[in-house]
Amino acid sequence: DQKKASQSKAGVSQVLNRYTYASTLSHLRRTNTPIGRDGKIAKPRQLHNTHWGLVCPAETPEGQACGLVKNLSLMCYVTVGTPGFPLIDFMRQRGMDLLEEYDPVINPRATKVFLNGTWVGVHRNAGHLADTLRSLRRKGLLSFEVTIIRDVREREIRVFT
């Protein structure tokens, strides 16, 4: 085990900055891009459009780490996730057909149901299913972290737990 310890990466841990409450929060919400600091590549240092609302566009250090060390924005919230299997059973009881049972010839206009990015089934009444899931979340029966998206144009319901 000592040989493995000598070959491990340096700089994995840092001393927590406790100067002020704001600096402590900033330090805890810091992200690090694991590429060499001495490179002159500009792309990893720039903010991508998908970072909107997730990464602070102003807070980054100066010097070699500029743009490689980013901070989460103040309203950004990282979820832990919950198991999705109870949700599949619930949606099956509410009329969702599993993907294995679905025949597109019989019902070509059915709405696809995705759970955590995986296509799990189809539903004939997407509006009712989405409204039911949202009301359960409002009542606290589903975790407040569960995201429910109904895309009418693509005929999809996307649920992220």
TrEMBL record:
<dbReference type="GO" id="GO:0000428">
    <property type="term" value="C:DNA-directed RNA polymerase complex"/>
</dbReference>
<feature type="domain" description="RNA polymerase Rpb2">
    <location>
        <begin position="14"/>
        <end position="78"/>
    </location>
</feature>
<keyword id="KW-0240">DNA-directed RNA polymerase</keyword>
<dbReference type="GO" id="GO:0003677">
    <property type="term" value="F:DNA binding"/>
</dbReference>
<comment type="similarity">
    <text>Belongs to the RNA polymerase beta chain family.</text>
</comment>
<dbReference type="GO" id="GO:0032549">
    <property type="term" value="F:ribonucleoside binding"/>
</dbReference>
<dbReference type="InterPro" id="IPR007645">
    <property type="entry name" value="RNA_pol_Rpb2_3"/>
</dbReference>
<dbReference type="InterPro" id="IPR007646">
    <property type="entry name" value="RNA_pol_Rpb2_4"/>
</dbReference>
<protein>
    <recommendedName>
        <fullName>DNA-directed RNA polymerase</fullName>
        <ecNumber>2.7.7.6</ecNumber>
    </recommendedName>
</protein>
<dbReference type="Pfam" id="PF04565">
    <property type="entry name" value="RNA_pol_Rpb2_3"/>
</dbReference>
<keyword id="KW-0548">Nucleotidyltransferase</keyword>
<feature type="domain" description="RNA polymerase Rpb2">
    <location>
        <begin position="113"/>
        <end position="161"/>
    </location>
</feature>
<dbReference type="GO" id="GO:0003899">
    <property type="term" value="F:DNA-directed RNA polymerase activity"/>
</dbReference>
<keyword id="KW-0808">Transferase</keyword>
<dbReference type="InterPro" id="IPR015712">
    <property type="entry name" value="DNA-dir_RNA_pol_su2"/>
</dbReference>
<keyword id="KW-0804">Transcription</keyword>
<dbReference type="Pfam" id="PF04566">
    <property type="entry name" value="RNA_pol_Rpb2_4"/>
</dbReference>
<dbReference type="GO" id="GO:0006351">
    <property type="term" value="P:DNA-templated transcription"/>
</dbReference>
